[in-house]
Write a structure and sequence with these properties.
The protein is 82% helix and 0% strand. With 140 residues, the protein is mostly helical.
């Protein structure tokens, strides 16, 4: 059974897996494999929803984690955290609208918005893993 202390690692794994799925989904659509693209992107969405629920539960029960680093790495961490946080807030409606357009088969509108959604979603997923590593795995 997982405890609250295990959730940051679980969340980082969900973020990393989402990033991989996003890259695979992009590759699949570039190759013209629409059904596989759809399945992979829906999986990325499901993992992101699971991440969000787990993240909110963790922070409701464990609070915040202070960054232990000093020196040059401290402003780097906060720059990554700030960009991640701002884009994480923005990505939720972007993903929902992009997904809705895809499910409604409005391909051209989906494609236009997905060109913005994909790189932002990928950045948020990847920087989530970086933030986890900087907080929990690297020695400062």
């Amino acid at each position: 059974m997982l405890g609250t202390g295990d959730l940051p690692g679980v969340n980082a794994t969900l973020n990393a897996t989402t990033a991989v799925l996003l890259a695979v989904g992009y590759r699949l659509i570039r190759l013209g494999h629409r059904r596989a693209h759809r399945a992979v992107m829906l999986s990325a969405f499901a993992l992101s929803v699971l991440f969000l629920v787990s993240y909110l539960w963790y922070h409701a029960h464990a609070g915040t984690t202070r960054f232990p680093g000093r020196g040059w790495v401290r402003p780097l961490y906060f720059a990554i955290l700030l960009s991640h946080t701002v884009l994480a807030a923005a990505i939720v409606p972007l993903v929902l609208v992009t997904l809705t357009r895809a499910l409604r088969a409005d391909v051209s509108a989906h494609r236009r918005l997905a060109r913005w959604t994909l790189p932002i979603w990928l950045y948020v997923s990847a920087t989530g893993v970086v933030i986890y590593a900087m907080l929990n795995r690297l020695s400062w």
